[in-house]
Design brief:
It contains 3 helices and 6 strands, in the order H-E-E-E-E-E-H-E-H. It has about 130 residues and is an alpha+beta fold.
């Protein structure tokens, strides 16, 4: 009997890898705020947003310059008959963001939907700062 990786397990493990490498993680979902009477979030946006900061010496000013790295990941489980697929709305959102220059990864499309598949993809992406995670 094989053990199937649940989407939540893959998301948790991938998030832990990224957090160990200095990323902050934000769970993304579209909700309606009854108090504010408005929709929060965007239809089709990925499961997680990861943000990380870097400080660069700027030779033209006495100040450090802050640079932010942004990564979106849509976590999917793509095994068995309960496999999750990217919806048309998600594909459209991802296409728009990628055209704007965003880094958006989809499990099962950009990397194998496994923990090892994610780890290898992350290492090869050149975003990994700490080699100990590889």
């Amino acid at each position: 009997m094989s053990v199937r990786t649940l989407e939540s397990h893959l998301e948790k493990a991938g998030t832990q890898i990224l957090e160990l490498d200095g990323w902050r993680s934000f769970k993304m979902e579209q909700n309606f705020s009854e108090k504010k009477l408005k929709i929060i979030g965007e239809a089709g946006m990925p499961d997680r947003l990861y943000i990380r900061y870097a400080y660069i010496d700027c030779m033209y000013t006495p100040y450090l310059r802050v640079v932010s790295e942004v990564l979106f990941v849509e976590w999917k489980r793509l095994e068995g008959k309960n496999a999750t697929k990217t919806s048309q709305r998600q594909k459209y959102w991802i296409l728009l963001e990628r055209n704007r220059g965003a880094v958006v990864w989809i499990a099962g499309e950009d990397f194998p939907a496994t923990i090892e598949g994610f780890r290898k993809h992350y290492k090869n992406s050149r975003l990994m700062r700490h080699a100990i995670l590889s």
